[in-house]
Amino acid sequence: xxxxxxxxxxxxxxxxxxxxxxxxxxxxxxxxxxxxxxxxxxxxxxxxxxxxxxxxxxxxxxxxxxxxxxxxxxxxxxxxxxxxxxxxxxxxxxxxxxxxxxxxxxxxxxxxxxxxxxxxxxxxxxxxxxxxxxxxxxxxxxxxxxxxxxxxxxxxx
Length: 157
Prior knowledge:
Layout: H1 16-42, H2 44-57, H3 66-73, H4 76-101, H5 105-128, H6 132-156
Helix pairs in contact: 1-4, 2-3, 4-5, 5-6
């Protein structure tokens, strides 16, 4: 960052909300990266066995339903595709985490829009399954949107 930039702030404590959100995004990114790596390392065979075990354990129809469809859909190509999608998700969250840690405006926009997109689903979940968990998820997402929107508005002044 350039000290002549009006948005520059050398104080690392100046963005505690952004840093907290950045850490959460980094953890999400690292977990997704682990999941993508796990998919690639395991391959389709153990996944098919686990799905078949679930079908037997819960006495599901092995020929019909979503679990049967999933069991028949698992192939090396589908595992690579799933791992690629999860890897892209991980990269996005790690990139966002870096941007938020460095207090980049684009990262605040990315995080704010991303978190705001979840709000209708959070509200639906709260209406459909009221409880402390749905409430906590909604409140946390509202706080994230508020912190990031506040950062965006501060930059516009």
